[in-house]
Amino acid sequence: MSDKDKQPLAASASTQSEAESADAALRHIVDGFLHFHHDVFPQQEELFKKLATAQSPRAMFIACADSRIVPELITQSAPGDLFVTRNVGNVVPPYGQMNGGVSTAIEYAVLALGVQHIIICGHSDCGAMRAVLNPDSLEKMPTVKAWLRHAEVAKTMVHENCNCANENESMHVLTEENVIAQLQHLRTHPSVASRMANGHLFIHGWVYNIETSEIKAYDADKGCFLPLDGSHPIPVATPKARF
Ligand SMILES: [Zn+2]
């Protein structure tokens, strides 16, 4: 098996030239599919046969829709391993405010699939976080503006509690605070709250750095983000079980 075949996701992540035409963009995607269908799929046929009628993912992964974040690639997961939901800003609306796609996916992952972990993953250079800091940029995008109200609490947190020296620092703190805010929203979902309370579900808040590939994870006990570097216990955002 060549390195290319071992990492089909990496193989498709070529750099897109600025002048790429619509035809060329589509051709690239279809060529990628044909490579997968003819060369990659046959090598993993057993796995796909097993997955054809059932799934039992290790975790639910809630990430930003940003094209540079590929949950399966950065966690080296295979098909069937992660139940992924992605949206602008890795947002989780609080329960009862909006019975949309994210809430539906959470309920399904917890109650139907029985996942034991939910990971909310933000990232560096997030366009959604930049827009939260500069709301004027959203004047012509009323839907994005309305959606990002779910990140408003993080913005207030930064403005009122952090003497950030520049926009880069504000972005860094806002991105972490947004992950913490979405973890709090996640806990308002009854299915999540109940299984966390009886010790069957664990929640995690991560921030992925696109430039370095490092991840920092929120440690709820210590109240800070710590590197996920394999040399320390894995930081978790789950409070103690009560039942
Ligand atoms: Zn983003």
UniProtKB/TrEMBL annotation:
It comes from the Bacteria. Its EC number is 4.2.1.1. Its cofactor is Zn(2+). PROSITE patterns: PROK_CO2_ANHYDRASE_1 (PS00704), PROK_CO2_ANHYDRASE_2 (PS00705). It catalyses: hydrogencarbonate + H(+) = CO2 + H2O. InterPro entries: Beta_CA_cladeB, Carbonic_anhydrase, Carbonic_anhydrase_CS, Carbonic_anhydrase_sf. Pfam families: Pro_CA. Keywords: Lyase, Metal-binding, Zinc. Belongs to the beta-class carbonic anhydrase family. Reversible hydration of carbon dioxide. This is Carbonic anhydrase. It comes from Pseudomonas violetae.
